[in-house]
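fold-stage: in
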Amino acid sequence: MALRRQDIERRDFPIARRGYDPDAVDAHLRSLADRLDEQGATAASLAGAASEQVRAIVTAAEASAAEIRAAADEEAQSHLARVEEAAKAMLQRVDEMEGDLGKLVETLREGAGRLASDLAQVRGSMGELQAAEAADKGPTVEPAAQEAAAAGQPDDSEGARLIALNMALNGTPREETDRYLEENFQLADRAALLDEVYARVG
């Protein structure tokens, strides 16, 4: 049971002779009551201050937690946005690379087709030229070959004719072909061979 001021200042004590002076007792009791009131006020003040401090601490903690949560959410959103942007850029780059690769493959296919067509045309032209050459030569031996054989020199006219024909088909000037034949073949009549080849190529 809590001690109250009324309990200290009660005046319903029995009166007896030869006891303490009632006024002195009353004064002492009032002093005790005053001190009790002061202690109660101090305790109430301390309790109020402590309660206020606790409330301030709780408020600050809640505010700090809210700030931390908001900062974490903002950082997470920013990180997510960066990841999404990087992923989008990567996908776009992959699409561009796929497009470039498709164009490259298509270009290679077209180039391979043109190359095959050109090779077929070259083979056809070579066959026609060889057939025409065989028809023109007939079974007889050319005088230049006879002269080379008589002189004891190797006859390179067939190989030289094929080389000259290939160079002429590739657009090589006659002077360059003549120089190449002079350096690499022994021919009795190089000029006649070149006349024949370049006349057929046109």
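fold-stage: in (second)
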Amino acid sequence: MKMLRKTLCAMTLGTATLAPIMSTAVFAAPVAASEQQATNNLVKQLTNIRSLSANFEQTTKATSGSKVAQKKGLTGQHMNQTFKGVMKVARPGKFFWETTSPSKQTIVTSGKTVWIYDPDLQQAVRQSLDDQVANTPALLLSGNTSQIMQSYRVTQPDKGKTYYTLLPKDRDGAFQSLTISFGVNKAPSLMILEDSLGQTTYVRFNNVKVNPSIPASTFNFTPPKGTDIIDQ
């Protein structure tokens, strides 16, 4: 009986000793990475992606008090817009983003010039890639990773998890923050963009393929005959 009591006592003390440790492990607050660590970790994540293809679903939500909602008189369900399409990127600087539903639009660059083509309007906008990197966060997936440090402050709220928030150093840009999350295959799974107009855009990626072979012709664009070309 004494031996049994000693055994039970030891088990109880052991449990009591472990309880604070287990409690700390379960309820411990996430430890954020330093800005330099966060930047290095994000650059490492992106550097591992030489090419990428995925389907995407993009949903933009405007709150009732946002500038967009007030300007357009949007209420309720009319404040949400969802688009679906295909994305392909290849380093350095090659990018293809095509919205297929509910309407079609193509954004493509081979590294120097960005084309934005709207077939319904028979219109193509031509812009410098340098001017667009700050305003098109998705171009981060194909651009020069060193530019991240020049253009953004990077935070990693939990250094044990692969999601990051980028804050533009230029406060006059088109967006206020960008959060990017990576999945188990080290590919981006979600991007959340908050812009200066009070809108939040969620881009979810699926059927993601990391480092696939993508034909170079994917990133070339020749405006169809009769297209109105606008230089910006």
